[in-house]
Amino acid sequence: xxxxxxxxxxxxxxxxxxxxxxxxxxxxxxxxxxxxxxxxxxxxxxxxxxxxxxxxxxxxxxxxxxxxxxxxxxxxxxxxxxxxxxxxxxxxxxxxxxxxxxxxxxxxxxxxxxxxxxxxxxxxxxxxxxxxxxxxxxxxxxxxxxxxxxxxxxxxxxxxxxxxxxxxxxxxxxxxxxxxxxxxxxxxxxxxxxxxxxxxxxxxxxxxxxxxxxxxxxxxxxxxxxxxxxxxxxxxxxxxxxxxxxxxxxxxxxxxxxxxxxxxxxxxxxxxxxxxxxxxxxxxxxxxxxxxxxxxxxxxxxxxxxxxxxxxxxxxxxxxxxxx
Amino acid sequence: xxxxxxxxxxxxxxxxxxxxxxxxxxxxxxxxxxxxxxxxxxxxxxxxxxxxxxxxxxxxxxxxxxxxxxxxxxxxxxxxxxxxxxxxxxxxxxxxxxxxxxxxxxxxxxxxxxxxxxxxxxxxxxxxxxxxxxxxxxxxxxxxxxxxxxxxxxxxxxxxxxxxxxxxxxxxxxxxxxxxxxxxxxxxxxxxxxxxxxxxxxxxxxxxxxxxxxxxxxxxxxxxxxxxxxxxxxxxxxxxxxxxxxxxxxxxxxxxxxxxxxxxxxxxxxxxxxxxxxxxxxxxxxxxxxxxxxxxxxxxxxxxxxxxxxxxxxxxxxxxxxxxxxxxxxxxxxxxxxxxxxxxxxxxxxxxxxxxxxxx
Lengths: 324, 360
Ligand SMILES: Cc1ncc(C[n+]2csc(CCOP(=O)(O)OP(=O)(O)O)c2C)c(N)n1
Ligand SMILES: [Mg+2]
Fold this sequence. Notes:
By secondary structure, chain A is an alpha/beta fold. In chain A, 41% of the residues lie in helices and 11% in strands. Chain A contains eleven helices and eight strands. In chain A, the strands form two sheets. Chain A has a six-stranded parallel β-sheet with strand order 2-1-3-4-8-7, sandwiched between helices. In chain A, strands 5-6 form a two-stranded antiparallel sheet. The two termini of chain A are 30 Å apart. Chain B is α/β, with parallel strands linked by helices. Chain B has helices spanning 9-23, 47-51, 63-75, 87-90, 94-101, 104-107, 137-141, 154-166, 214-228, 247-256, 271-283, 315-326, 330-344, and strands spanning 6-8, 27-31, 56-58, 79-84, 117-122, 147-149, 171-176, 183-185, 199-202, 207-211, 233-237, 240-242, 259-266, 292-296. In chain B, strands 3-2-4-5-7-6-12 form a seven-stranded mixed β-sheet, sandwiched between helices. In chain B, strand 13 (259-266), helix 11 and strand 14 (292-296) form a beta-alpha-beta unit. In chain B, helix 1 runs parallel beside helix 8 (154-166) and helix 9 (214-228) packs across helix 12 (315-326). The longest helix of chain B is centred in the N-terminal third of the chain and has 15 residues, at 9-23. Chains A and B meet through loops of A and helix 3 of B. The complex binds thiamine diphosphate and magnesium ion (MG). Chain A: This is Thiamine pyrophosphate-dependent dehydrogenase E1 component subunit alpha. Chain A: It catalyses: N(6)-[(R)-lipoyl]-L-lysyl-[protein] + pyruvate + H(+) = N(6)-[(R)-S(8)-acetyldihydrolipoyl]-L-lysyl-[protein] + CO2. Chain A: Keywords: Oxidoreductase, Plasmid, Thiamine pyrophosphate.
């Protein structure tokens, strides 16, 4: 049996979130160097959903992500060097430089695919679950979905299919209130997201997407159901993207949302919340924090150095792998 | 002569939409991002403020659904304009476009028409990668019942979009993102450029060079350099892919005896394949040498710029192909070609414009 972090305790969850935050902050800072020449969709502010869900997943559980895939990939133990090398367009990237930041994949870690077309990834996860079922294994598949992706027909087709076949899938709705620069209220009628599952006779659960323990508990229940053969679950987590839709900057000044709204969510930072909880419980202090962040920073520095100095793929290889 | 009004293609498309909407209250805009602060690379900027949310409608991410909605409204006599930020996103709506937009007039014996315009943009550069950079115009061009346009210059872009919005048929406008940066004189007010076929943009007698969209800009650069080596190119903008009207190209080849076609999309099964086949059928006797096609190679667009060095045709590869076609000695073209190569090397392969800083 492969190992699982299902029992992951708050210190582990906190460290995983802090690491993702520091990695993405580093991407944001270094983006201005103009060496990461591909679009980047940062998950800063949304770390708890990725970490809380993946805490209960094993390496043989499959994850399918979207354009905003960095946190999901990292939370599932996707290789950091291969991720950064991909963003730098290098041969050592997880796609050999072919995909860029929206196509992160790591088979060892169970990151099956990340796909940049909205909702395109949802049925792929259902297909992964079908394969798991056909092979008679107890693994599960999870699809991370933005609030925008449930507007596509294929979301509904996938929910229906998964419910009909009672497949081991987690539909993880990561509601950050926006699709690019368009708010939810301009795109969808008001109703509880969990009602979407009711239409397909599927269980659903909503939890605070900035509370990593709440996310972990909800995901744990859904994973248990899926492993037991009791079928799919819709999980709904409200959270917030701090930076612009695509790129390294803040954009609260361009008019689609308010600085006050952002500050409100920033107050509820998932990483800081977990930090405060740990300190209050006497399980973390400044010295531990310093040691932890120093170790993470060293790992990040090494990974960036690797990605920046790694060789580019040679142009002839552009033609290879069109067929298997 | 009136003073030149210099706009880029993005601004010209915005102006076309504004002029047409002012003229015809039935026109309304649908799309993801049409009223957001980025306004589809500026091409819909200010329209929501001017015409209101009822006529500039922000859409859920539901391309097939809202395309069907647009077709339904169009059959009822409304005039929807759909805008997609990428061709790749429009792929979700092909069922509605191919089965309903393209066929309703035919199936109903002309009783219903579908006055729908769908704009979609071909991405390129800054690591866009495999699913944000596809130039799939042949898919649309092969469907009877659709009209397909690829604008290249600012004046034409405005006139073609107004013509499309006044047309009773579904018109697909495929814009290359890098074409948005091209500037030129644009007349004020309402005018149309007919959606009736290719047009000559430069006269010459030695070789016929035909291109679609952004590749026309590369071809024009190539033609300037070729001129310095004494080769005069007859350059034709494909402009309108369907209705397919090859006569200007066939006529040109009858004079030059040589044909070079540059596709913005794939070379195989590209627009050039249809054009070359037609020229061979209609002017075989005039050809002094086999026609040549350039276009994208047989693989998806990789993200890394290192993998893109030979991916896109350039003014240089066009020059080389034209030099081979006309059989001039390489020495004659070497100096002007080297000068152009030095100039092109100043800009990285993955950016459209010196001011560009990513990410889109
Ligand atoms: C089919 C399709 N339409 C449009 C887009 C452009 N697009 C990229 S991300 C995005 C917003 C997605 O919003 P959401 O699903 O909420 O994810 P978030 O970006 O908030 O994480 C859009 C519209 C796309 N990639 N694919
Ligand atoms: Mg969202």
